[in-house]
């Protein structure tokens, strides 16, 4: 299933959940655009980094949102490339994320243990980043920022996103 079908499926699931919850002023919507700014993510762009497009066709930045009643999802994501070495980019983003709280290093197995359902504790995905790649998260299970960094030739590639969930 491609990304668009998955996003439409998510929106329909949100709509059904909201309708079952009995929202009196029910609304539903999907929006997306390629005008995302670093301020939408809430993180600075590493000095000298340039927007990166994979395969020449993907967008280097995107904002997506879906909502149904009180339920919703909003994602702001950006991709970059820099000639800076991996270690410098990693240090820069650990510090930048740190202003939002405790930074999770997703390479650490402890941070990949799923939190109880009723917890708002942020965790990483169950699978670890590939060797030589980094992923960091900060925030809560419903509102967080994530940065992934990997080597790219003599420089580095990094992606950053802000994800907000309402349910």
Describe the structure in your own words.
The structure is a single chain. It contains three helices and eight strands. It has 167 residues and is of the alpha+beta class. It has one domain. Strands 1, 2, 3, 4, 5, 6, 7 and 8 form an eight-stranded antiparallel beta sheet that branches. The protein starts with a helix and ends with a strand. The model has no long low-confidence stretch (mean pLDDT 87).
Which secondary structure elements does this structure contain, and how are they paired or packed?
Blueprint: H1 3-21, E1 28-33, H2 38-41, E2 50-51, E3 61-68, E4 71-82, H3 86-98, E5 104-105, E6 134-139, E7 143-152, E8 155-166
Antiparallel strand pairs: 1-3, 2-4, 3-4, 4-8, 5-6, 6-7, 7-8
What sort of overall outline do the alpha carbons produce when their principal axes are compared? globular
Output mean pLDDT: 87
Task: Outline the biggest β-sheet.
Answer: 8 strands, antiparallel
Count of helical regions: 3
The strand count comes to 8
State the separation between the terminal residues, measured CA to CA.
24 Å
Query: Helicity range of the residues?
Result: 10-25%
* SSE arrangement, N to C: HEHEEEHEEEE
Short description:
The chain is of the alpha+beta class and 167 residues long. It has three helices and eight strands; from the N terminus they run H-E-H-E-E-E-H-E-E-E-E.
Name the descriptors.
single chain; 167 residues; alpha+beta; 8-stranded antiparallel β-sheet; 8 strands; 35% strand; globular
């Amino acid at each position: 299933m491609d990304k668009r079908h998955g996003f439409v499926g998510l929106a329909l699931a949100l709509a059904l959940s909201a309708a079952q919850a009995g929202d009196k002023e029910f609304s539903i919507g999907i929006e997306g655009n390629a005008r995302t700014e670093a301020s939408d993510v809430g993180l600075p762009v590493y000095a000298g980094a340039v927007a990166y497009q994979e395969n020449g066709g993907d967008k280097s930045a995107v904002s997506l949102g879906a909502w149904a009643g009180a339920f919703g999802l909003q994602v702001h994501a950006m991709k970059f490339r820099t000639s800076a070495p991996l270690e410098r980019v990693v240090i820069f983003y650990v510090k930048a994320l740190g202003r939002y709280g405790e930074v999770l290093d997703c390479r650490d197995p402890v941070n990949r243990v799923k939190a109880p359902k009723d917890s708002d504790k942020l965790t990483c995905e169950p699978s670890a980043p590939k060797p030589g790649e980094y992923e960091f998260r900060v925030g809560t299970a419903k509102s967080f920022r994530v940065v992934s960094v990997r080597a790219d030739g003599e420089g580095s590639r990094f992606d950053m996103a802000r994800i907000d969930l309402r349910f």
